[in-house]
Amino acid sequence: MATKKPKLELEKVTRDKVAAFMRSSGFIVQTEFVTPYGKIDVLVKEYKPTGELIHHIVECKRTNGSHDIKHAIGQLRMYAQHYGSNTKLYFCTSCKKPLSAEAKRVMASNPDILYKVF
Fold it and tell me: Which tens digits make up the pLDDT trace of 77-98?
């Protein structure tokens, strides 16, 4: 009997998990936030005690293949232009399979983007 592959969650489910996690940490969270460059999956505003505002931009994809990672990085770079230098970038997925060699290379060449599996 063949074993079933685990079903991948929809991007919306991953997005909602990320948003709930960030809200539980006390951040101001918006999902599907519209910018001149497209919709940010999760936009988080963090106010430091000094009053400094830091934006966290999260792009969620269904898989962690190199194509999805490259696409997400392009989106994140465009969104970051809108928010300036006080921006942290994240690529999130529900896909638990190991990254391919190409996907690892792409992530390694973008050390400012955090990769997280939810």
Answer: 999 998 888 899 999 999 999 9
Answer for the pair 87, 37: CB distance below 8 angstroms, yes or no: no
The DSSP letter of residue 43 is E
Query: Half-sphere exposure of residue 61, counting CA atoms within 13 Å on the CB side?
Result: 19
79: buried, middle or exposed (CB in 10 Å: 19+, 13-18, 0-12)? buried
Cα angle value 97/6/92 (rounded, 5°): 45
For 45-63, what is the mean pLDDT? Answer: 95
d(CA 37, CA 43): 14
Q: Is the pTM of this model over 0.85?
A: yes
